[in-house]
Each structure stands twice: as structure tokens, then as C-alpha cells.
């Protein structure tokens, strides 16, 4: 079974976090939601989520992918937390996937992980990604780095993560199940 770590910091973008968690769990992926603080983490729109664990508790575990939801405040909090960079660095050094959406690619840029990589982000954060090859595509994959633009691309982002982790057939199954755009009509 594939395992994914989703990191939540106060001010995270709720739509991005919940969409990724939900879609990956529908695909049978074990998703561990870890907070940078204990207890419920309040998102940018004042919606609290209760993580499964804390970053220190989950940080030493092995995962197939780490996902960073965006949100301006949430991303700023991820950027300030040295534990986040440490966990990501170890994960990347092991050749595993890292995915970030909206403002969160800036966390990866701060670490030097986006140099010469094709990436995307929320447009206002393009200047935060120096040295990268910026794209306006909705989801961009370059080697083991996956980036996406905004809450409006969260479903496509999550389905892309499913495809990378468990295959195209599972992506299509979920698209059909939830009647995603482009899925076959089900009567």
C-alpha cells in the first residue's frame, strides 16, 4: 500500500488539503495528515481540521510522497518551520515524490529543489520560484516534483497524484465514481 504524508500548518488552504486527502483515500492510499502544531489546525478560511498526528511523530516514517497544501498563511508557516525542510530533504534524498500546490511550491524553492525544474504555482507566487522554468499549466510534473496552481486545480492535482501512485486505471475509476469532468457518463 502506498503511503502519503500531508503536512498542515495554520492557515492552510482547506480545499486543497481536503481534496487531496479525500481523493487519495478513495484510491486506497494510506494518507497520514500531520500538523505542525498539536490539536486542530485552523485553515485560512477558519475551518479546523484534526490531523492524524504531529510532524515530529510522523517525520521519521517512510512515505511514497509528501504533499504540501498551499494558502498564503499556511505556506508562510511551512516556510518558517525548519522541521518541514528537514523532512522534505530526507524524503527527496531517498528519491521520493514531493507535491505542492498554490503557494506551497515556494517551500520547495526555498530549499533549492526547483532550480531548472518545470513548475507552476498560484500566479502571485511565480516570483518566489527563481531559477525554475515556470509554466501556466494546471498541473506540472518534473521528475519527482509535482506542482499545481490553486484551489481550482485541486481535483486535477489529486487525481494526478493517484495516477502517479497507483496508476491510470485507478484514476479513471475515481473520475467515473465522482463524475469528474471528462469521465464517462454513468446512468
What does this structure look like?
The chain is an alpha/beta fold and 187 residues long. The chain has helices at residues 14-26, 55-58, 72-80, 82-93, 105-110, 154-166, 168-177, and strands at residues 3-8, 30-35, 41-42, 48-49, 53-54, 65-68, 97-101, 118-119, 133-134, 139-142, 145-148. The strands form three sheets. A seven-stranded mixed beta sheet has the order 5-2-1-6-7-11-10, sandwiched between helices. The protein has a two-stranded antiparallel ribbon with strand order 3-4. The chain has a two-stranded parallel ribbon with strand order 8-9. β10 (139-142) and β11 form a beta hairpin. α1 (14-26) packs parallel to α6 (154-166). The mean pLDDT is 97.
What is the number of strand segments? 11
Shape descriptor:
globular
CATH class: Alpha Beta
> What is the third-level CATH name, the topology?
Rossmann fold
Give the spatial strand order of the biggest sheet.
5-2-1-6-7-11-10
**What's the number of helices?**
7
Summary keywords:
187 residues; alpha/beta; Rossmann fold; 7-stranded mixed beta sheet; two-stranded antiparallel sheet; 7 helices; 11 strands; globular
Give the topology, please.
Elements: E1 3-8, H1 14-26, E2 30-35, E3 41-42, E4 48-49, E5 53-54, H2 55-58, E6 65-68, H3 72-80, H4 82-93, E7 97-101, H5 105-110, E8 118-119, E9 133-134, E10 139-142, E11 145-148, H6 154-166, H7 168-177
The gist of it:
This protein has helices at 14-26, 55-58, 72-80, 82-93, 105-110, 154-166, 168-177, and strands at 3-8, 30-35, 41-42, 48-49, 53-54, 65-68, 97-101, 118-119, 133-134, 139-142, 145-148.
Amino acid at each position: 500500500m502506498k503511503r502519503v504524508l500531508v503536512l498542515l500548518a495554520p492557515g492552510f488552504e482547506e480545499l486543497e488539503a481536503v481534496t487531496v486527502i479525500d481523493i487519495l483515500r478513495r484510491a486506497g492510499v494510506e494518507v497520514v495528515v500531520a500538523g505542525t502544531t498539536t490539536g486542530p489546525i485552523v485553515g485560512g478560511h477558519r475551518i479546523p481540521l484534526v490531523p492524524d498526528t504531529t510532524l515530529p511523530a510522523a517525520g521519521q516514517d517512510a512515505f511514497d510522497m509528501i504533499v504540501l497544501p498551499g494558502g498564503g498563511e499556511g505556506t508562510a508557516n511551512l516556510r518558517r518551520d525548519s522541521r518541514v525542510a528537514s523532512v522534505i530533504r530526507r524524503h527527496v534524498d531517498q528519491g521520493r515524490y514531493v507535491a505542492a500546490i498554490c503557494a506551497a511550491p515556494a517551500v520547495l524553492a526555498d530549499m533549492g529543489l526547483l532550480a531548472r525544474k518545470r513548475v507552476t504555482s498560484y500566479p502571485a507566487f511565480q516570483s518566489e520560484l527563481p531559477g525554475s522554468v515556470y509554466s501556466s499549466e494546471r498541473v506540472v510534473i518534473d521528475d519527482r516534483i509535482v506542482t499545481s496552481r490553486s484551489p481550482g486545480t485541486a481535483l486535477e492535482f489529486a487525481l494526478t497524484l493517484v495516477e502517479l501512485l497507483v496508476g491510470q486505471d485507478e484514476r479513471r475509476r475515481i473520475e467515473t465514481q465522482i463524475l469528474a469532468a471528462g469521465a464517462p457518463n454513468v446512468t
